[in-house]
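Reproducibility note. Readers wishing to regenerate the assembly model reported in the main text can use the exact inputs given here. Chain order matters: entities are listed in the order in which they were concatenated for prediction.
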Amino acid sequence: MRLTGERELGFVLYELLDVEALCARERFQEHGRETFDAALETARQIAGDLFAPCNRAADEDEPRIENGRIVTLPAYQAALDAFFEAGFGAAHVDAELGGLQMPWTVAQACFSQFLMANVAATSYPMLTIGAANMLAAFGTEAQKADHLEAMYAGRTYGTMALTEPQAGSSLADIRTRAEPTGEGDYRIKGTKIFISGGEHELSGNIVHMVLARLPDAPPGVKGISMFLVPRYRPDGEGRPVIDNDVALAGLIHKMGWRGTVSTMLNFGEKGECRGTLVGAANRGLAHMFHMMNEARIGVAMCATMLGAAGYNASLDYARERPQGRPAGAKDPTSAPVPIVAHADVRRMLLAQKSYVEGAFALGLACARLVDEQATAADETARREAGLLLEILTPVMKAWSSDWCLEANRLAIQIHGGYGYTREYPVEQHYRDNRLNPIHEGTNGIQAIDLLGRKAVMQDGAALALLRREIMRTVEAGRGSTALADYAEALAKALDRLDRVTATLAAHMAEDAEAGLANASVYLAMTGHTVIAWIWLRQALAAERGLAAGDVGVSEEDGGARDFYEGKLASCRYFFRWELPATVTQAALLESRDDTCLAVRPEQL
Amino acid sequence: MKILVPVKRVVDYNVKIRVKADGTGVETQNVKMSMNPFDEIAVEQAIRLKEAGLAEEIIAVSLGVTQSQETIRTALAMGADRGILVETDEALEPLGVAKCLQKIAEKEGPGLILMGKQAIDDDANQTPQMLSALLGWAQATYVSKLEIADGKAKVKREIDGGLENLEIALPAVLSVDLRLNEPRYASLPNIMKAKKKPIDTMSPADLGVDVSPRLVTLKVTEPPKRAGGVKVESVAELVDKLRNEAKVI
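Running the prediction on these inputs yields the following structure tokens for the assembly.
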């Protein structure tokens, strides 16, 4: 399987985001382009050698229960062990915890290669790293000492155990309870569902990050606490061997993403399940969001890399599949052309390229903000990076999962009837990707998060900051003859977004329900504006690349010129074919349209 | 015991080779380069010997342009201890390489030189044999199994007829084959450690070797396109064609 071109990785990391600049900071001073490239190379090798080959196999042979134990493919164990042995679980982690202190941006770029090869297998480390990072931020010294190093090294895997059968998106309604035992820990009782990686034999132990209520907890989300619940508790000598009464109640059989075992878990069926409090009592939701925000950015990367896999597959197919003749060709006996010669096929390829590479650049740009938030020299820069991340997280999660799924639809379309068969990889990409608009907060939830919280918080400070950043790119674009029109189009889109935000903010103040009713359109519009910004940034970087010379001619030199011109073509596509959608979206939103709000359930 | 492992920077095995338009060679500009895969196997074997307590130090040597340093770094990230780069822009040929390696071996005094049986770019399969002759050391080529004990190497060689078992005295030059081992991945901690490992840089002149080419390349062309096959009507016809046209049975 072909992974992301090194050219693309190099372009985004070094030409667009200048990650080398991070090496001047104390935390990253041991690093340089040399270590980044070597790490990426190892990631590509392991992803290609071990993750890609079992991607299809796990789809066809999903985890099952035998003699009370979950059976996964042996190839999964080998792939995941290689991942952790090579140190990817601890790439970003502090040196004192056995980590490499690699920038999060580069760690994510490495991670993207595993996601592209096998998203389901990569879920296990993704969940584990997310849970460990949350523990690192809020856990007690004892919890950290017991689990962190083991999690980053892959001996213990982690999960997020939030959802319950009666409470999915609505965490205020969870019922799992935690009773103090009087011995410093808590007795946990309740049922959780859709718990990815909830039980398996891939790691020696599993720690679940469980949301539950204390006996005296206030109702709603202000009464939720976070507990660390291991599969196996330590015995007197600290060996994790005591069964902690977390029972596997069933497996979920999914449409895609089948290699990741999805479970229903009963905590404390026998009253013997013990957990320890993570962070402060009744602050569980805030702690969960630390993990959840990372997970949402992670979901966007999953969606993006599945989109990229489909784009690559359909591009290869379109270049090789001969079918039909140019519209003007008269001779029916002439040789058929590869379907990439047809404009409509190129449309579908260019659309995929603009969605996938737009989402990829946004994903790593957000990762760069994570590094900025953690290591920027001055406090203002750190705070601003955090604020930008807050507003970009729902946009990235929802936009990338909606549009990279659309990319997968187009990849199937290019394959024609073959794309609908299980002989080609694109149907699996689509099924796998269909999860991403749903999990870690549905895209409907993301829309409410964006409009109801992020766009208006601190008097719109996050949005104002995003505007400032986008205007910087607009100013740079105005200085380029070829890109000035796009810069103007982006400035106009930004003005539209401001107007719409003001209208909706006022509407929400009058009537929260009515004001939020069309939030998904607001998110779609914001997403297209943000991706247009990302494309203008990429186009400016491509112009710099072309101007720097030494790009030779196409084909003969590895296609350096084609690479940059392809970026310019994608930017053009996005501005001409996609960004105009924001005009109609803005019109609908500004009219305070109530079509969906007004229709009564009985009328449906 | 020291082990010397020569590593060559070649066009990556995944890259589709393109012949330059002027027919002077293959295109290497903007093409991904990496360590010759057979050399990776040699590096891996050296590391295993060191891990087994049979060697103390592994020296990775590369010859070529400045960027060959990256290939040495890869060997260091796998587990080699230090590197030597013989830097030159000259188009290197097996004899020149073998002479440089001879000088380095005489200076370093390794007990073993482990190298790939050939490089995937020119497929010359000459350097190990030339080096062994220049040093006057024993050699074993196409090694697919290796045991070291009592100053001797017991090897299995992959030869046309099957496998040959040899026992040779050290110091020796061994050229390794595909099935000897599966090279490890460069782990992130080892990539970081590799940054701090030393690489000595010298020129062929420093070694007193003249590496100027002895061969003249007349022309490089793509191999001829494969002609289409034919369908035969019967087994008898197939046998007849194999016997009389292809002359393989």
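We highlight two features of this model. Chain A has three domains: 6-152, 157-281, 442-597. The CA atoms of residues 137 and 290 of chain A lie 8 Å apart.
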